[in-house]
Amino acid sequence: MLMEELRKEMDKLYMDLLPILEKRVEISKKIGEYKYEHNLPIYDEEREDQILDKIEELLEDKENGGEIMGSLINFFEDSKMIQRSVIYKLEKENGREYKY
Q1: Is 45 among the domain residues?
Q2: Number of domains within the chain
Q3: Separation between Cα atoms, residue 34 and residue 100, nearest integer Å
Q4: In this structure, is residue 81 part of a structural domain?
Q5: Dihedral (CA of 25, 22, 7, 66) sign
Q6: What confidence tens digit (pLDDT) does each residue in 79-88 have?
Q7: CATH number at residue 33
Q8: How far apart are CA 82 and CA 28, in angstroms?
Q9: Which of 43, 66, 86, 97 has the most CB atoms less than 10 A away?
Q10: Does 99 reside within a domain?
Q11: Can you give the pTM of this predicted structure?
């Protein structure tokens, strides 16, 4: 397969992922709002472990599992960053500190 074909295939995957990633960001923001309102911690180790365990079970290609799990962990970190940003904004707007 030529490099050009591989790049086209990768570009298609990016375009397929874009709506999913946009939805994920919006949900992360809503989660941040909820955690601020209910004074819940940003980091939920049990939840992350449950997701990783479930994904590991479902992986068809175990050989590439490490790379996939690493990407998911990066997604978790991005989500926490988005939540922190939302909480910071809400603290400024409401004058109420997030205390967890």
Answers
A1: yes
A2: 1
A3: 13
A4: yes
A5: positive
A6: 999 999 999 9
A7: 1.20.59.10
A8: 6
A9: 86
A10: no
A11: 0.88
Q: Is residue 100 part of a domain?
A: no
CB 81 within 8 A of CB 20: no
Tokens 């479930």 belong to residue: 54
What is the per-residue pLDDT across 57-95, written as a single tens digit (0 to 9) for each?
999 988 999 999 999 999 999 999 999 999 999 999 999
What CA–CA distance (Å, rounded) separates 11 from 5? 10
- Measure the CA–CA gap between 77 and 3, rounded to whole angstroms: 32
**Domain residue limits at 40:** 3-94
Alpha-carbon distance of 35 to 41, in angstroms, equals 7
Supply the DSSP string of 54-75, one letter for each residue.
HHHHH-S-GGGHHHHHHHHHHH
- Going by C-alpha positions, the residue among 39, 31, 37 that lies closest to residue 83 is 31
